Amino acid sequence: SQTIHQWPATLVQPVGSPLSLECTVEGTSNPNLYWYRQAAGRGLQLLFYSVGIGQISSEVPQNLSASRPQDRQFILSSKKLLLSDSGFYLCAWSVALASGNTIYFGEGSWLTVV
Amino acid sequence: GESVGLHLPTLSVQEGDNSIINCAYSNSASDYFIWYKQESGKGPQFIIDIRSNMDKRQGQRVTVLLNKTVKHLSLQIAATQPGDSAVYFCAERYTGNQFYFGTGTSLTVIP
């Protein structure tokens, strides 16, 4: 069966520090991968999605970036965090089928920028 | 981008009653919809999905209804239990790889 792992689960980072959140998917090949952010009491905002290695689409211009160095690995990064980057970050994956593909989420990473 | 919204941000129901959570979507080209349940501090969990060529789909204690005429989606939970307390999101897909989510409805089940 397919599983998705995301880490770290929680982190507290000072303003201006770098960020790296990592996500891996097991049990499937060539998945679509996503990064979402959820601010407190808000919905899910799509940040990045990827249909393959090295292929990243950005939804929202910001100081975050994403990379996909391997087929089942998706990394969310920042060189300098802002207070507004605080939130709950969710990695997700879906099967790359045109006929319909449910999206499955990891357990999330809580980021607090202080 | 297109918006997916929920009519009621909070909903309280008595244990054993049926719950109905509503969602409006704005893109008539959306072809696939999903309902998720999110418990506090966790990632959303898939509940049930429905394609645009259907108007109803049933799962275990849950039913999703799709009305394309008015672009409305609903989730019905039968015999609501305390474990159903969570935030529920609807999501729409209107391009091959992108999903967009509503803000969520918080369901509280009163024992």
Structural write-up:
The complex is a heterodimer of chains A (114) and B (111). By secondary structure, chain A is mainly β. Chain A is built from no helices and eleven strands. Chain A has strands spanning 3-7, 10-13, 19-26, 32-38, 44-52, 55-58, 64-70, 73-78, 87-94, 103-105, 109-113. In chain A, strands 2, 4, 5, 6, 9, 10 and 11 form a seven-stranded mixed beta sheet that branches. In chain A, strands 1-3-8-7 form a four-stranded antiparallel beta sheet, with no helix packed on it. Chain A is globular, with a radius of gyration of 14 Å. The model of chain A has no long low-confidence stretch (mean pLDDT 90). Chain B is mainly beta and 111 residues long. Helix content of chain B is 0%, strand content 54%. Chain B has strands at residues 4-5, 10-14, 19-25, 32-38, 45-51, 56-58, 62-67, 72-77, 86-93, 99-101, 105-110. In chain B, strands 2, 4, 5, 9, 10 and 11 form a six-stranded mixed beta sheet that branches. Chain B has a five-stranded antiparallel beta sheet with strand order 1-3-8-7-6, with no helix packed on it. In chain B, strand 7 and strand 8 (72-77) form a beta hairpin. The mean pLDDT of chain B is 88. The A-B interface holds A 6, 32, 34, 36, 42-44, 46, 49, 51, 59, 90, 92, 94, 96, 98, 100, 102-108, 110 and B 1, 31-32, 34, 36, 41-46, 49, 51, 89, 91, 93, 96-104.
Name the descriptors:
heterodimer; A: 114 residues; mainly beta; seven-stranded mixed sheet; four-stranded antiparallel sheet; 11 strands; 0% helix; globular; B: 111 residues; six-stranded mixed sheet; five-stranded antiparallel sheet; 54% strand
Helices and strands, with pairings:
The complex is a heterodimer of chains A (114) and B (111).
Chain A: E1 3-7, E2 10-13, E3 19-26, E4 32-38, E5 44-52, E6 55-58, E7 64-70, E8 73-78, E9 87-94, E10 103-105, E11 109-113
Parallel strand pairs in A: 2-11
Antiparallel strand pairs in A: 1-3, 3-8, 4-5, 4-9, 5-6, 7-8, 9-10, 9-11
Chain B: E1 4-5, E2 10-14, E3 19-25, E4 32-38, E5 45-51, E6 56-58, E7 62-67, E8 72-77, E9 86-93, E10 99-101, E11 105-110
Parallel strand pairs in B: 2-11
Antiparallel strand pairs in B: 1-3, 3-8, 4-5, 4-9, 6-7, 7-8, 9-10, 9-11
